[in-house]
UniProtKB/TrEMBL annotation:
Protein name: Fructoselysine-6-P-deglycase FrlB-like protein
GO biological process, one term: carbohydrate derivative metabolic process
Organism: Thermasporomyces composti
Keywords: Repeat
Coiled coil: none
One annotated GO molecular function: carbohydrate derivative binding
Residues in SIS domain copies: 37-175
Amino acid sequence: MLRGQPITEGAFMQFVTEEIASQPACWRQAATLARTASGVLPREGERVAVIGCGTSWFMAQSYAVLREAAGHGETDAFPASEFPAGRRYDRVVALTRSGTTTEVLARLSDLRGRTPTVAVTADPKTPVMDLADEVVVLEFADERSVVQTRFATSALTLLRAHLGADVDAAVADAEQALAEPLPDGATERRQFTFLGTGWTVGLANEAALKMREASLSWTESYPAMEYRHGPMSITDASSVVWFLGTPPPDLPEEVRRLGAMVVTKPERDPLAELIRAQRLAVEIGVSKGLNPDQPRNLTRSVILSDATTHDKGASTS
């Protein structure tokens, strides 16, 4: 079957759906691994940069905010292609599911011998194993679907656990997010906006990306307070506005007055709420006859012949 060809629901739903459902179990393993990997993950007080591409970059954004908020030290997140070579860091963390992404490998090669690096990956048989000084392997969270779900959330869970987060509570919320119905009527809407604050801005970016990849939907994401500064002009009765985490006061009601469906679960761990957005993306994609396991124009990893070349590729590296 050619990549991007429509397929029937019966032929699909074998990889990404199983991978979405496996996230609570993967998070538990990630939390356990965090204890044994603590010696290679960033130390408290270090100045750290986190790099990745696509989904991994969005997880880096969330981790950077969480680490600073926990008082562990200044932390920046960059797309691997935009890493500022002139800045000094005590450690650079690279997130890469495939372990083969050109931009990530190029940055690790540049940093070799100058700045300590640690990679978080899913595949122990890839070039990242040789280029990073230290490696944490989440082989249990690897995926067959191009659309990345459980590796991204497991990598962030690993890093959250290392910061002292209550992973058990997040796992319980994830199980609930898998069991409960999707927001009634959401699959019939045509425009989706995901909003976050602090560390959940990265999650909002990721939720929007999943919707674009898996269902080719019109989807946007913003810091919640920026939504009023222009983006809300697209919102109408065909929209879903989904808050990840606690929304700013009065904003959900303001959005409702525009006719949009508002989705908010402030009592739920935001990473667990991301699971519902993943599920929605898959359900809409399948309803359109798409194959969310292999989205149009995407591959599992971006491997370029020249690191300066722009090419088609996955968000899930």
